[in-house]
Amino acid sequence: MLTAVCLLVVAGLPAGSSGAGAAGAGTLRVLQMNLCNSGRAGCYTGRAVPQAADVIAAELPDVVTLNEICRDDVVTLGRALRAVRAGGTTVSAFQAAGDRPSGGPTRCNNGEPYGIGLLARLDARDARPSVHRGTYPAQDLADPEERVWLCVRADGLHACTTHLANTSGQVALAQCGQLLGTVVPGVRGDAVGAPTVLGGDLNLRAGGMPDVRSCVPVGYRRIDDGGRQQILASSGVTICCRRSVDMRGATDHPALLATMIRSWPVPPPGRY
Fold first, then answer.
1. Helical residues (DSSP H) of 123-262, grouped into ranges
2. In this structure, what are the phi and psi dihedrals at residue 13, rounded to the nearest 5 degrees?
3. Is the pLDDT of residue 16 over 50?
4. Is residue 228 part of a domain?
5. From which residue to which does the signal peptide run (predicted)?
6. CB burial of residue 20 (10 Å; 0-12, 13-18, 19+)
7. In a domain, 83, yes or no
8. Is 9 domain-assigned?
C-alpha cells in the first residue's frame, strides 16, 4: 500500500521536480551498480561500462553509485550522466581499494586503480561540493583487498558509496557500523538541511547471518535488490519505489534503482 501511495505522489509531482539541488518536495533517483570490471574476476565481460552508460541514459538518475570499477570508468560514466542530465553540476569521484601486500592501490588488469565511484548531479546552488574518502579500520586480513568508502558532501545532498568485505560477514558488519555510525555523521557535521543517501554492495542481506538491518541506524530507510546491494537514506526522504534493472549479462549483478520523495528544505549555499 505504501508503494502504491508513493507511486501516486511521484506521478503527481510537477515536471522538473527531480534534481539533487531542488528546494522543497521533489524526487531523487539513486542508481547502484556493481560492474565487475576489474578484468580479474570470472564475472568480467568487458561490456559492463557501455551497458551502464545505456542504463544511465534510460533511467536519468540524480546519483549513481559504482562498485568494482576501474578509475577511468568514472570519467566515462560521468560523461554519460552529463549528456542526459543537462544543467547544474555533475560531480564525480573515485576511491581505490587498497592492496595490502604492495601497500598501494588494488589494480585492474589494465593497470588502472580499482575501487568504487560516485556521480551526482547538483543544482548550481549546491556550490562547493567536497569529496571525503577513507579506508575502514576493520579488514579481513585473509583478503589482500582493503575495503574503502567514498562520500560527496554538498549543500543540498550528501551521497556515499562503499563495497564491503565479501570474505567475512562479521567484518562487513563492522565496516557497515563504522560507515553509518561514525563516517556519515562526521561527513555531515552540523548540516541538518540535507540527508545522506548511500548505495553500495554491502555483502550483507536482510535476514542473513549477520543481518544488514543490525547496522542500519534508527530512522533510516533501506531497500535492496533481494541480495546484497542496498540503497539507504537518512531522515528527510521516503524511498517509495525500488526496481532491479537488467544489465543484460554484462555483469553478475542487476542495477538497483530507488526513487525517493524529498521533503527536506535545502539550506542557502554555503550554509553547511
1. 169-178, 184-188
2. -70, 150
3. no
4. yes
5. 1-22
6. buried
7. yes
8. no
